[in-house]
Design a protein that fits this description.
mainly alpha; Four Helix Bundle (Hemerythrin (Met), subunit A); two-stranded antiparallel ribbon; 57% helix; 4% strand
Length: 190
Amino acid sequence: MSDALLEQHAAALRLFGEHVRAVADDQWDAPTPCTEWTVRDLVNHVTGEQLWVPPLIAEGRTVEELGDELSGDVLGADPVAAWEKAAAAARAAFAVPGALERTVTLSYGPTRGAAYCAELTADCVVHAWDLARGIGADDRLPDGLVEFALKEVMPYADGLAASGMFAEPLDIPAGANAQTRLLALVGRRG
């Protein structure tokens, strides 16, 4: 399980990273399906999520201890380099033996490292689609990542909108493929 989870996380990071590297200089202010976010805002969000992993997993710090240390613009003058560094650090932190069995303290309470990794993986998959849409790239997601994200999101899909981080789930069209089902669960029309 742990090797499979780590590979899914790495694959999601690779996919998102491919899109980050494809952002043209004039696309950073482009809109995304996340109505509040530009391409830069979206990349900043996902990069920031990865920056949380080392202090929470490797150092055992809590969200409260970190406070706003990782808030604001984490991309600086070189968004691609900032993304690459954050993604590599997150992968390394989760790959440390025992990291997935640790308990981390998140904003909503204690969580196993494996659950935290799975949550970030699913989020990264969905945001890879958002980023692809924002820059006009191919938005087809790999089947394995879609299936992984679906399994992760389905148990709590009804409560996602209440978090304020997702739109209301959409009706899933009859005969919809897995990617369309995933996107509908997180309030996106594919």
